[in-house]
Specification:
Layout lengths: L6 H7 L9 H14 L8 E2 L2 H8 L3 H13 L3 E4 L3 E4 L3 H4 L14 E2 L10 H9 L3 H5 L10 H13 L9 E4 L1 H13 L5 E6 L3 H9 L3 E6 L7 H9 L5 E4 L13 H13 L3 E5 L24 E5 L11 E4 L2 H11 L8 H12 L2 H25 L4 E2 L7 E5 L5 H10 L2 E2 L17 E5 L4 H19 L16
Parallel strand pairs: 4-14, 6-7, 6-8, 8-9, 9-10
Antiparallel strand pairs: 1-3, 2-3, 5-11, 10-11, 12-13, 13-15
Helix pairs in contact: 1-3, 2-4, 2-16, 3-4, 6-14, 8-14, 9-10, 9-13, 11-12, 15-17, 16-17
The protein binds pyridoxal-5'-phosphate.
Length: 479
């Protein structure tokens, strides 16, 4: 049975209804964008043309053309009796706004907050070759992880002030592998889970995919205000809280020790398990003193880490630091998925962690330079944009002067600049995301210049029509 999307929900997802060109073209572009960035999934049934006409206040001709465009480009299948159902065509799925590589020679994608590998990673691969003969004498199945890697990850926590044994570490396929394993092990359908909003969209998806219901904790101007958390906890029982305290994605904020202590206390008293994503914790660009890991304030916390950000995403190595009683249930649950992570890459990460300082310094130096460059370029070319100030992370969180994120991203795509629309980072109340854009600074400075000039062109195009054309009644905007 296909999930039905209501006309009012689609209206909300489409963002501001002001159009520069033919309305049918903008609307079909925006629906394609929603499909490509994962907000509308394969198999979702769109509302009938008649319902959408009423919700948007547009003519039947326009809405029929929107659906016809989507059908022609392979994004929609309409069958008599079963309505119009979303399809994600094969080619399009590799150009998703959130997961895109550069979609062509001339296009630029700012959808990843991830860098190319620093030089030292290649050397670590070579050094790991020495350990390979011994590894090859084993089966290579490592459901809990390579012992030497587990030891080094544990030592890394101890060095950060959180005593940890290797038995508490499970190596996973990236932080995403860790999150989906935790979701499958900890949650049952209908469980309520607190998530930050804005937050990391793939984590929302991992939690929702096991049937969790997400409660959105607003973070932003005053990150981690405790009052809204209290209100959520009072609203009913919650099973877990997924938080990114270290250089939060997308805002870059860093949770203070005092906030950690009070949030941990509230969650403990409400019997809510903290799931703490520390994927970004190494990206301390300004070298600020780091608070203790969240688990130091609550030993029930299940912590997720990754080699992706300070080392390289292509390693696909992450890990879970779990309380002892959860280790075996997690390992058991993974048996139905991947049976362990790639053995050689674990050896490589063990090699890196033996002396990581130079690689990290190298990665942070480039990121600092790129961050300064992107900030300056935006201040120069897009002075209306307000930028987040944070001591770390890999992206700027932009506040736009108007609610135009989706429309701007659709326009940017016409300039071959691929971005993730702000609403994608919001768990609920996605309209709030229309004031935001996440701009990673993980490309070279030349590429960032190119991205900013395309974004400025797209913004200018949108601003030329700055008074939102609020459509009402059955007006056909292409007439
Ligand atoms: C907060 C957060 N969690 C998880 C991930 C995914 O990490 P990995 O590549 O290790 O799966 C990312 C990647 O951007 C992230 O920012």
């Amino acid at each position: 049975m296909n999930v039905l999307l209501s006309a009012s929900r689609l209206r909300e997802l489409l963002g501001e209804l002001s159009f520069d060109g033919p309305a049918y073209r903008e609307l079909s572009d925006r629906i394609r964008l929603l499909i490509l960035d994962g907000r509308l999934s394969h198999g979702t049934r769109l509302p009938s043309e008649r319902e959408l006409c009423i919700a948007l206040g547009l003519s039947r001709t326009t809405v029929s053309r929107v659906y016809a465009e989507l059908r022609d480009s392979g994004f929609l299948e309409s069958r008599r009796g079963s309505g119009s159902v979303i399809r994600v065509p094969y080619v399009a799925s590799s150009t998703s706004a959130l997961i895109a590589h550069d979609t062509g020679e001339t296009s630029v994608s700012l959808t990843y907050a991830a860098s190319a590998a620093p030089a030292g990673i290649g050397r670590a691969f070579s050094a790991a070759m020495h350990g390979l003969p011994a590894l090859l004498t084993t089966t290579g199945y490592l459901p809990d992880g390579l012992p030497v890697l587990r030891e080094r990850i544990a030592a890394h926590y101890a060095a950060r002030g959180l005593p940890t044994t290797a038995e508490q570490i499970i190596v996973t396929s990236g932080a995403m592998g860790a999150l989906s394993l935790i979701a499958r092990t900890l949650l049952t359908r209908g469980d309520r889970v607190i998530v930050e909003s804005p937050g990391y969209p793939h984590a929302f998806d991992a939690l929702s995919s096991v049937g969790a219901r997400l409660s959105a904790l607003p973070v932003g101007e005053t990150p981690w205000a405790v009052q809204p958390l209290r209100a959520i906890l009072r609203s009913g029982p919650h099973r877990a809280a997924y938080l990114i305290p270290d250089f939060h994605n997308p805002t870059g904020a860093l949770m203070t020790d005092a906030e950690r202590e009070s949030i941990a206390g509230l969650l403990r008293r409400a019997h809510v398990t903290p799931v703490i994503d520390e994927t970004m914790s190494g990206v301390n660009l300004d070298g600020v003193p780091m608070p203790l890991p969240f688990a130091a304030y609550d030993n029930r916390a299940v912590t997720v880490g990754s080699a992706a950000k300070t080392f390289w995403g292509g390693l696909r190595i992450g890990w879970i630091r779990a309380p002892r009683e959860l280790v075996m249930p997690l390992i058991q649950a993974r048996m139905s998925s991947d049976l362990g992570s790639a053995a050689f890459e674990q050896l490589v990460v063990a090699e890196i962690l033996a002396s990581p300082d130079e690689i990290i310094a190298d990665a942070l130096k480039s990121l600092r330079r790129q961050r300064a460059h992107l900030r300056a370029a935006i201040a120069r070319e897009l002075p209306d944009f307000e930028l987040s100030v944070s001591p770390g992370g890999m992206s700027l969180w932009v506040t736009l002067p108007r609610r135009i994120s989706t429309a701007l991203v659709a326009e940017a795509a016409r300039h071959e600049l691929i971005l993730t629309p702000g609403p994608r980072f919001f768990a609920h109340h996605r309209a709030a995301g229309e004031r935001h854009l996440r701009l990673p600074y993980t490309h070279t400075t030349d590429m960032l210049d190119e991205a900013v000039s395309r974004l400025a062109a797209a913004y200018e195009q949108k601003s030329a029509h700055s008074r939102p054309h609020r459509v009402s009644g059955a007006i056909d905007l292409i007439a």
